[in-house]
Amino acid sequence: MRDTSPHVSPHLLGRHIKFMTSPRCRSTRMLLAAALLVATTAAASAHTIHVDQTGGGDYLTIQEGIDAASYGDTVLVAPGTYYEHLYVGPTADGVTLLSGAGPESTIIDNEGASYYSVIHCENVGPDTRIEGFTITGGDSYYWGGGVRADNADVRIASCTITDCRAPNMQGGGIGSDYSSIEVSGCWIEGNRGGDGGGIGVWRGEAIIKENTIIGNVAASFVGNQSGGGIYVSCGHAEITDNLIEGNSALFGGGIQDWGSGDLSVLDNRIIGNTASYDGGGIALYHSSCLATGNIIADNHAVMWGGGAVDVRSSSSSPPRASAQFINNVFFGNTSDGDESAIRIRQGGPTPIFNHNFFADDTTYEVLVTSTPSADTIDFTGNWWGTNDPDEIAAKIYDCNDDPALLWCIDFSDWCADASCDGQVTSVEDPPEAAPVSWGRIKSLYR
Asked: What is the pTM of this model?
């Protein structure tokens, strides 16, 4: 017989347990302990609910399966196209929504029904999982045209998310607000959001790893129209080992981060993205970011600058650690406005660029603008395509070109050759980290 006892997610209990320490909360603690025991028991008796629209399962629709599920259950969906928009709420906390045959055969299609995400997850914990579907046709008025996470912890894996919209808010493909999401092994293509054509993260946390994020657009009549591939604002994100290609936005064609305290961009291929204004590959505004091991190539900024990266901060913003770009490849990035691959502007903490590989970019590899006070920006230990200091200096526009700029680029200890086997100037103990070889770049892009 199915256990119909009420359940409470251990995760959701954990959100509140730290507040249960005063004497007057003693009885509440006892109730929570009892609820936790029920949750553990329910998880131990978890079972599989079969959904098959041809009549071969327990239910004909996915929503019926979700509504019948309890913590720890799996809703297993047979192949077919299911014309539904789904709600995964508190009663479905800890439920796994799983396709039986993968995204090629199991499709959830909202058919563009106005104001609906394909899957709306709300007030659920990290054992809630969506895996193996094609998710399409979403048209959310808020965020997350394909999948919307609302005060939720959700794991999304091995899904194809395409042709979904959230034109007024964040995340055409996936959008989260006050949530913690993990997106892994997904194909996210051809979606449109106000910010974050592919994925939008607002006031929360995200792990975005091993995905293909291509051909998404950030465009609307509201919002910043930023982050064609990924948009992060006022949150924390780890963006690791993704292909982010051919996305477009006004700002930050590939990735745009606005005001986040902790952003990691690690081992990605950020290729062929376009920003109408600045930051063809990556745009960072008032953000703390560590970017390392990335190939940032063939990105373009149309009107302003920063074909590869645009870094903007302000002394009036909350103080943050500077953006750090270490051991990346910058190749073939261009901009029409100020002809810069990397543009650095305004005040605040100065960024750091060490042990990177610059090759075949636009006129200026680095261009500094509008700096309020004198400072030196650390660009030491890089390969610039030459070991001639005069040629390197010609690739940089800073205080030496316009004394009013005040910020100066320190490019000392540059690599003597493309393999970065040695450095050339005054640093006594050159760091050991070295960019990838020129041979690897030629094999990828020549």
From this structure: 0.86
